[in-house]
Design brief:
Among the domains are: 5-420, YVTN repeat-like/Quinoprotein amine dehydrogenase (Methylamine Dehydrogenase, Chain H); 767-861, Immunoglobulin-like (Sandwich), CATH 2.60.40; 864-942, Immunoglobulin-like (Sandwich); 948-1060, Immunoglobulins (Immunoglobulin-like); 1066-1162, Immunoglobulin-like (Sandwich); 1430-1572, Roll (Ubiquitin-like (UB roll)); 1785-1822, no CATH class. The protein contains 33 helices and 98 strands. A hairpin with a 7-residue loop joins β2 and β3. It is globular. One of its GO terms (biological process) is positive regulation of axonogenesis. Residues 11-466 form the Sema domain. The chain crosses the membrane at residues 1176-1196.
């Protein structure tokens, strides 16, 4: 058995182009002993004749027309390199580099560009382009290649193949590359050759492998093109099989397929030697090894040659694609045949049947990459065990195929293939030893004219050695397809070597067996002695000066050329040569210029009859089996020639085979032959009956040669071979076989089989086993019977009579239908009445056999019809009708409700579609269930007159659509789905190509009854659909589709429908649109524009100012005049929420067009008169004011002097205060640094407690969700799990369609009920669903981002990405979080963790109020403790609990610092923090699960708690207990002991998202309010309307805070300054490589700005700030629990929020003007923010100046992320959650897909309906 491992060339110790001496002939050679030759290519122009050789460390350019003369040589190695280093390689970045040989991996010619492509294994397999004229001239080479430019394998032992292809049209050239496994590079990819970047590939232009490449271990053999496809041949492990053996594969992909959607793999199997079938067409010749070891890649020496017709290979591939597209890859009875390979998250689908034809090269919605489990098989055409075949080359000569096969022992085999009568005949006509024991390299090339073959180790030698044959007979008998006898030149050579080879008869082809050497045709024996002339040979054309001569031995006579031949005068009889005895006579004829020898022989007959009937007088020796000229044989009987002898002995012959000609297989039988004259063999004691070859077809065996003693048969006797087991798998089939074959059922129950009776060694069974029922269809029927049931199984009888009356269904007899019975396998019967509802098994009893019961249950049911909806419809049909009832799936129901189409049947309803009727009126409803009918009592379906449209107006619309068309008519309310279709077709004046480009269809829904203003039966309002600008030059046709009725607009409208250009409106304030338009109340607002009245009336225009209506009075071509409200309208609530300006906006709505023309400000009306009394009052008031001002000035001068003295005192106090704060900061900082150094040493052992990726993603993607989709399992019933999972996999495939995904997102976003929370949730679900395809996820993000930019450019671009109001903004947050996770862990994480620990340590050093959450040490003034609290630090000795002890039984104590003012809960938190500091938070016990126990002595154990009977109560205030309260001394011993409370629930540290609250809220508890350090302020008790403004409260608080408390903020800020600086530096530093995602996204934003002509640097800065700092860093800074496994608290979060706000302020360009009323939090970092801003600006500038990140680099990094985190993400739950949104907005999504022509073509709506049917049994119009 040939398992089919194709062979590649193996390494050779010395590979040379050398001379081989064969038959004394030498050939051109080129040899080098310092290298090994590896690849060979030829110049594409045969006239040039240059040969290029790729070798280890060398390239050679040879002159093939001048004996392989060396023209140029280029040294390519050794070079300094290492497999582990990326180029460029130098000592700095690759210290392990060493001198490495450069093996030539690829040597290809680009015939279009006339370039030589060379690739080596060094520098990660990079390539170069060189000139074909001079290999020393390098045309392209990259010094700093990216990973997508690594082409060849970087290992000399790993295979690489390549192919240069010019794509259709010749506009570009690509290189297909197949490479074995060395790293994560794709095994097959498409590389650029004519576009930048050279040798790189797009992320989609590769074979995607989701599994581990090393498992497959590809070994490539070759690549070639055919028609519009590229083929690869390789072998790899079949990891799907148990043995994981290597198998050979042929892969195919479309040339135009840039994403490998059409990639298919087919296994190739080469079976053992046999007669191969041949086809006239293109074939693939492959060399296979006969055995392969799974542990050793080197095949053994036995090899074979197989021929695979390429047309059959293409059919197999197309069949595989069709199965995977339309049948889920399955074939009935064979299971899964086509499947998705390489562990890609896709699966075969159930697409429409024409998918393969519609998408010949696949599409983004078709599954890929595909593979077949069914191999393409071929029988070995030729095999050899002498040596392993290593190379193959093929040529075609005069319609015959010739193969040159090189082997491992240096032998070249020349093999010819002859196709005759659909069979393939193979023969080896020559073997030539090229270089003994030196394997022939796989690059075995023929030159362009086929004259020479290039062999590596080899030689350049002719394809045939014709000169070795010295005479005509030897030349013709060689049967060499390249050789022939040159008649006039008298030598053996190729046709092109013969001067007149093209003239018929001048060159006799050796391979043509009908050719004969030139010889004497007629010779008269009687004329020889008398000197008469004899015709010798047919005439040949001669040139001038040439003549024939006749030679008789040594005697020459001139020859006379006539029209019929050559006439020679014979010499004298004395000069005649003696006539030799033997098979013939000899004569010579020699032209003047060369010798020619012709031998005419008597034909030697091999058959008796042919021998004795010949005219030569030959006789037949029957026993020697020879034809002889002798009169008698040396022994035995002689059969004499019939033309010479009078004896009439006849040849013996065989006429027939006696007795039966039936022969069972595997049984030895004696055959008796009957013939004539067989008595001649009586003297022979023994003879053999031999068969040379046996052809088995339909069990007929033909003997080609019956007897070895003679061949005298006039016909071929035949026998019939039969095999009882074929087609008779069970007993019943066996016993129905024709008795003449003698088949019996033999063996026990476990190993029974059908065999020939004489072959049965076990017991012969005369009765068959009991029947076995496999399947029932249907499984239900009406109680009245009449249901035709099909019972499938085995041993179901030998004839229908065996089971005629023994078939029952649920105990009810079932009448067998004889005409549909199939022996043993199928019974078709019709049920009889059961009388009542019942269920049971089907049973079959065979006459004389056993009883068989079905596993399925058949039910007799009574279906009931209850109602229909609707109860009327137009007689034209096309209306959907639903019949409701119970048990409606009984049997196979047939609906007869008048003229209906049945669409869908469910248990409780049947969906139909009405046909047209020729009359109106009522129709009854009847459903037939088998032989029973059910009628719908009391309900009928009423056919109404057809709806009719009488008028439609107006007849114009602008391109954007939305204009209301009023459709009037009758009976319009009976239409279920009215639609309007707009068809754009090219005008007749356009050429056909442009007409095709304009063809479009648009559909819009018709809206009935708007605001109860229309009569639904007579009027429909229809908004026109939007069309493209091509509608202006196209012919527009509009149709109204009323279910099955179509109405042309031209027949119901006053004129043809047309589209006009969109109107344009200019801003109210054209000089400066950003400023408001000032409107004087009482005046008219005038708006300028263009094309305003072309396709709309003024009544249809809606103008608004805020929430007020501006009544349109006049509409002209260029002006719109409207009357605004008398008072300034209010701003809509939505605008207020968005933070928009308080002025109302002027908007105009014209159909689908909405114009925002600026804000409007009403001017206040000035008083027209100023009364005299007012003038007098003003004068008196001015006098009083002047007097008051004078008094104030005098008082001010006096007070200012006093103030100056007070100022100097305050200045002295402030200086003292500053000194005090400075000293305190130094001390606090020193203490903190000491503490942090201790903590750093602890981190060396335990490390930073980073969360794993799954927890990180869960908290980033789903904040606020207590149970995220990453944790849950799929919540579906087990019975539907498999179906739902299949549907979700189909949904995953559907999400791969970019069009569907964008339509899905945009459709959801326009729904009013789709909240911002929903948007964020859907975005995160999409992130999880596409996590395994981050490259595609990024592409979707870019597309949506482009749409978002276009949306905001039309409004205010600076507001983009500021909030999470769209799906794309949340997608961006998630994308950044995924890409920066590694950067967080490796770079910024340590600085952030140190800052977090520093904050926590510093806050815990001072008092923290457990009720209000206020602390002494903080950066947030709202959380500042504004009281002096007396406290001291205590050091407690903590007895470690058993779970925390390091081992042993002795008690261990750990010192821990706390404050005596801490509550008991705060003490427990601090003790846990200090005693479990090497353990992450989630691994620690929860504080609520522990009690704090004070151990004052041996028996003095006291449990401490926040509240107990000893708590101090003062009025309505109760104080929480502290260590002061219990008088716990310094150095006391305490223990954390488990709390014995079975109802305790806090036994885990699950992340609880959402806003945190203080430990104890200051709410009421039985009328008592809790307090800790200070009592809560009374402000919280004030009503909201009395709290005042933010500015007022801030001012009051600023006045209330004494200066000493502000110093606490400064002290905290100074203490943390270093840690804040370190964090900001880690985030904003460009000293280390910037994360690739940041560079890539910033470049994308720059491109978007350039694309939309945004040159304002502030806008671009804002975009970058909103995308990175705002969306990612602020989120991380405020939530350290997103990245670390730590416990957070309100007071720590308050500090982090100030730092996060400082970071955000640093990223803004606008200057913040700070004053006395500015927030204290901003004042804290007022001096630092300018420095931080410089860091941000420098960071952005450095990123912009770095080398751009290419799509290939980004996609490569994303692919690696997908692989690394594949196991962390559960996609099915996310897909199921996504489907809930699809289900919620199902109709809107389907409508959006149906309205898109491309989506219709891709059948996206149909696929979504399939998914809905699978996931939730949704009834769809499939």
């Amino acid at each position: 058995m040939l398992h089919g491992k194709a062979l590649n060339s193996t390494l050779v110790l010395l590979l040379i182009l050398t001379v081989a001496t064969a038959h004394g002939r030498s050939y051109p050679r080129f040899s080098r002993n310092d290298t090994e030759f590896q690849h060979l290519v030829l110049h594409p122009d045969p006239s040039v004749g240059t040969v290029y050789v790729g070798a280890r460390n060398h390239l050679f350019q040879l002159d093939g027309s001048d004996g392989l003369r060396l023209e140029q040589e280029e040294t390519t190695g050794p070079v300094s390199d290492s497999k582990d280093c990326l180029p460029p390689v130098n000592e700095l970045n690759c210290p392990q580099a060493k001198r490495t040989s450069n093996h030539n991996k690829l040597l290809l010619v680009d015939p279009t560009a006339l370039e030589l492509i060379t690739c080596g294994n060094v520098h990660q397999g990079t390539c170069q382009k060189r000139s074909l004229a001079s290999i020393k001239k390098v045309l392209f080479s990259t010094e700093r290649p990216v990973d997508t430019q690594y082409v060849a394998a970087n290992d000399p032992l790993v295979s690489t193949v390549g192919l240069v292809v010019g794509l259709r049209g010749g506009e570009r050239t690509v290189m297909y590359v197949g490479r074995g496994y060395t790293a994560s590079h794709p095994p097959i990819s498409t590389r650029h050759l004519s576009s930048e970047p050279i040798f790189s590939y797009e992320e989609t232009a590769k074979l995607a492998v989701a599994g581990r490449l090393s498992e497959y271990d590809h070994h490539f053999v070759t690549a070639f093109t055919r028609r519009s496809y590229v083929y690869f041949l390789f072998y790899r492990r079949d990891i799907k099989s148990v043995s994981r053996e290597y198998r050979t594969y042929a892969a195919r992909v479309c040339m135009e397929d840039t994403s490998y959607y059409s990639y298919v793999e087919i296994p190739l199997v080469c079976r053992s030697v046999g007669q191969g079938a041949g086809l006239q067409g293109e074939d693939l010749l492959g060399v296979f090894s006969s055995r392969i070891s799974s542990t050793n890649n080197s095949p053994v020496d036995a090899s074979a040659l197989c021929v695979f017709p390429l047309d059959e290979l293409d059919r197999h591939i197309d069949s595989t694609r069709d199965l995977c597209y339309t049948q889920d890859g399955r074939v009935e009875g064979r299971g899964e045949v086509a499947y998705i390979e390489y562990e890609v998250k896709s699966s075969c689908a159930n697409l429409p049947l024409n998918t393969l034809k519609a998408y010949p090269c696949g599409s983004d919605h078709t599954p890929s990459p595909m593979a077949s489990r069914a191999p393409l098989e071929a029988k070995a055409a030729w095999h050899t065990s002498a040596a392993r075949l290593t190379a193959v080359a093929v040529s075609v000569r005069d319609g015959h195929n010739i193969a040159f096969l090189g082997d491992s022992k240096g032998t070249l085999h020349k093999v010819s293939f002859i196709f005759y009568m659909l069979s393939l005949s193979v023969s080896v006509y020559a073997n030539t030893t090229i270089h003994p024991n030196s394997p022939i390299n796989s690059d075995l090339l023929l030159d362009q004219n086929g004259a020479h073959i290039y062999i590596m180790t080899k030689t350049k030698r002719p394809v045939a050695e014709c000169g070795d044959h010295l005479d005509c007979q030897s030349c013709l008998s060689a049967k060499d397809p390249y050789c022939g006898w040159c008649v006039l030149e008298g030598r053996c050579g190729q046709r092109w070597e013969c001067q007149r080879g093209s003239v018929q008869g001048q060159w006799l082809w050796s391979f043509n067996q009908t050719q004969q050497c030139l010889g004497i045709q007629h010779l008269s024996l009687y004329n020889i002695s008398r000197g008469e002339k004899t015709d010798v040979i047919q005439g040949r054309d001669l040139k001038q000066g040439e003549a024939y001569s006749c030679f008789f031995q040594d005697t020459e006579t001139p020859a006379l050329l006539t029209t019929t031949g050559v006439i020679c005068s014979t010499p004298d009889a004395s000069n005649l040569p003696p006539i030799g005895h033997g098979d013939g006579e000899f004569s010579e004829i020699v032209p003047d210029r060369s010798n020619f020898l012709s031998t005419f022989k008597d034909a030697k007959k091999n058959l008796c009859q042919g021998c004795v009937s010949s005219r030569w007088g030959c006789n037949w020796c029957i026993h020697q089996h020879v034809c002889t000229h002798k009169h008698t044989c040396s022994q035995g009987v002689t059969i004499y020639n019939q033309n010479v002898s009078l004896k009439r002995n006849e040849c013996p012959c065989v006429e027939k085979v006696q007795d039966s000609s039936l022969l069972p297989v595997n049984v030895e039988r004696k055959i008796t032959l009957v013939g004539q004259h067989l008595n001649l063999f009586q003297v022979i004691l023994q003879y053999l009956c031999l068969t040379e070859s046996v052809y088995v077809q339909q069990w007929v065996c033909v003997f080609r040669r019956i007897l070895s003693v003679h061949h005298c048969l006039a016909f071929l006797p035949s026998v019939t071979l039969f095999n009882c087991s074929v087609g008779r798998s069970d007993c019943s089939r066996c016993r129905t076989a024709d008795p003449k074959y003698g088949c019996v059922w033999c063996g026990g129950a476990a190993s029974s089989r059908c065999v020939y009776q004489d072959s049965c060694t076990d017991e012969i069974k005369h009765t068959c086993p009991a029947p076995v029922i496999h399947f029932l269809d249907p499984v239900s029927g009406p109680v009245e019977g009449g249901t035709v049931v099909t019972i499938s199984g085995s041993n179901l009888g030998q004839r229908a009579e065996d089971i005629q009356s023994s078939v029952t269904v649920a105990g009810v007899p079932c009448s067998v239908i004889h005409s549909r019975y199939e022996v043993s396998s199928r019974i078709v019967c019709e049920t009889t009445s059961s009388g009542e509802e019942r269920s049971g098994q089907a049973s079959v009893k065979v006459r004389g056999g056993g009883l068989g019961l079905s596993a399925q249950i058949f039910s007799f049911q009574n279906p009931i019809l209850s109602s229909i909806f609707p109860q009327r419809g137009p007689k034209a049909g096309g209306s959907a009708l639903t019949i409701r009832g119970r048990r409606l799936r009984t049997g196979h129901p047939n609906v007869k409700c008048g003229p209906l189409y049945r669409l869908n049947i469910q248990e409780d309803q049947i969906s139909c579609l009405t046909r047209g009727s020729n009359r109106t009126g009522d129709h009854g409803i009847t459903v037939r269930f088998g032989g029973a009918e059910r009628h719908l009592r009391g309900l009928v379906y009423h056919y109404t007159p057809n709806p009719n449209i009488t008028k439609a107006a107006p007849s114009k619309s602008f391109l954007s659509g939305g204009r209301i068309i009023r459709v009037s008519g009758q009976n319009l309310d009976v239409v279920q789905e009215p639609k309007m279709r707009v068809t754009l077709s090219p005008p007749d004046t356009l050429p056909p190509r442009r007409r095709r480009s304009i063809n479009r269809k648009r559909k819009g829904s018709l809206n009935r009854g708007l605001d109860h203003q229309v009569n639904s039966s007579s009027l429909i309002l229809c908004p026109t659909p939007a069309v493209g600008p091509e509608a202006r030059r196209a012919r527009v046709k509009v149709h109204f589709l009323l279910d099955s009725l179509h109405f042309d607009f031209s027949t119901v409208g006053n004129e043809a429908f047309s589209y006009e250009p969109n109107p344009k409106l200019y801003p109210l304030n054209q000089n400066d649109p950003s400023k408001p338009y000032h409107h004087k109340p009482g005046s008219i607002i005038s708006v300028e524009g263009e094309s305003l009245d072309l396709a709309i009336y003024k009544q249809e225009v809606e103008a608004r100012i805020g929430e007020g209506l501006c009544s349109v009075k006049t509409l002209t071509h260029n002006h719109l005049y409207c009357e605004p409200p008398s008072q300034q309208p209010s701003v809509p609530a939505s605008k207020k929420q968005d933070g928009m300006d308080s002025l109302p906006e002027f908007t105009v709505k014209m159909g689908n067009l909405n114009f925002s023309l600026g804000r409007v400000q009403y001017d206040s009306q000035a008083q027209s008169t100023f009364p005299l009394e007012a003038q007098v009052g003003v004068g008196v008031g001015a006098s009083i004011v002047a007097l008051i001002v004078l008094i104030i000035v005098l008082i001010y001068r006096r007070k200012s002097k006093q103030a100056m003295r007070d100022y100097k005192k305050v200045q002295i106090q402030l200086e003292n205060l500053e000194t005090s704060v400075r000293d305190r900061c130094k001390k606090e900082f020193t203490d903190l640094m000491t503490e942090m150094m201790d903590m750093s040493s602890d981190l060396v052992g335990s490390g930073i407690p980073f969360l794993d990726y799954r927890a990180y993603a869960e908290r980033i993607f789903f904040p606020g969700h207590q149970e995220s989709p990453l944790r849950r399992d799929l919540d579906v019933p087990e019975i539907r799990r498999q179906t739902v999972e299949q549907g979700l996999v189909q949904l995953s495939n559907l999400l791969n369609s970019k069009l569907f995904l964008t339509k899905f997102i945009h459709t959801l976003e326009v729904q009013r009920t789709f909240s911002p929370r929903d948007r964020a949730y859907v975005a995160s679900l999409l992130t999880v669903a596409l996590h395994g395809k981050l490259e595609y996820f990024t592409d979707i993000l870019k597309t949506l981002l482009n749409d978002l930019v276009e949306q905001y450019v039309a409004k205010n671009p600076k507001l983009m990405l500021r909030r999470t109001e769209s799906v794309v903004e949340k997608l961006l947050t998630n994308w950044m979080s995924i890409c920066l996770f590694t950067f967080l862990r490796e770079s910024a994480g340590e600085s952030f963790y140190m800052l977090f620990r520093a904050i926590k340590h510093q806050v815990d050093k001072g008092p923290v109020d457990a009720v209000t959450g206020k602390a002494k040490y903080t950066l947030n003034d709202n959380r500042l403790l504004r009281e002096d609290v007396e406290y001291r630090t205590l050091t407690l000795n903590v007895v470690m609990p058993a779970t925390a002890a390091s081992g042993g039984t002795t008690t261990q104590t750990v010192p821990a610092k706390v404050l005596d003012c801490d509550t008991i809960t705060q003490v427990k938190e601090k003790l846990l923090e200090q005693t479990w500091k090497g353990t992450s938070f989630s691994q620690r016990p929860h504080i609520d699960s522990l009690n704090l126990e004070w151990r004052a002595g041996v028996a003095g154990h006291l449990i401490l708690s926040d509240e107990d009977l000893t708590s101090v109560v003062q009025g309505s205030w109760k104080r929480l207990n502290t260590l002061q309260h219990y008088k716990v001394p310094d150095g006391a011993t305490v223990a954390l002991v488990p709390r014995n409370n079975k109802h305790h629930l806090h036994d885990s540290h699950d992340y609880m998202p959402g806003e945190k609250t203080p430990m104890l809220d200051d709410g009421e508890e039985g009328g008592v309010r809790l307090w800790h350090l200070v009592k809560a302020s009374e402000e919280s008790e004030l009503p909201k309307h009395r709290r005042g403004s933010v500015r007022e409260r801030g001012g009051e608080r600023a006045k209330a805070i004494p200066e000493i408390y502000l110093t606490r903020l400064l002290s905290m800020k100074g203490t943390l300054q270093k840690f804040v600086d370190d964090l900001f530096t880690a985030i904003l530093s460009t000293s280390r490589p910037v994360p690739l995602a940041v560079k890539y996204f910033f470049d994308l934003l720059d491109e978007q700005a350039l694309q939309h002509n945004i040159t304002d640097p502030e806008t671009i800065h804002i975009w970058k700030t909103n995308s990175l700092p705002l969306r990612f860093w602020i989120n991380i800074l405020k939530n350290p629990q997103f990245i670390f496994d730590v416990q957070t608290s309100d007071h720590v979060d308050a500090v982090l929020s100030v730092i996060a706000q400082t970071f955000m302020d640093s990223c803004t360009i606008a200057d913040h003007k700070l004053g006395r009323d500015s927030p204290i939090n901003k004042l804290l970092y007022a001096r630092d923010i300018p420095r931080y801003k410089q860091m941000v600006e420098r960071y952005y500038a450095d990123i912009r100046q770095t080398i751009s990140a290419s799509d290939q680099e980004m996609n490569s990094a994303l692919a690696e992320l997908s692989r690394n985190y594949a196991a962390e993400v559960n996609c099915l739950v996310a897909l199921h959650e996504l489907y809930k949104y699809i289900n919620k907005y199902y109709d809107q999504i389907i409508t959006a897909l149906e309205e898109d022509s491309t989506a219709q073509k891709m059948q996206l709506g149909y696929r979504l309906q399939q998914i809905a049917a699978a996931v939730e049994n949704k009834v769809t119009d499939l």
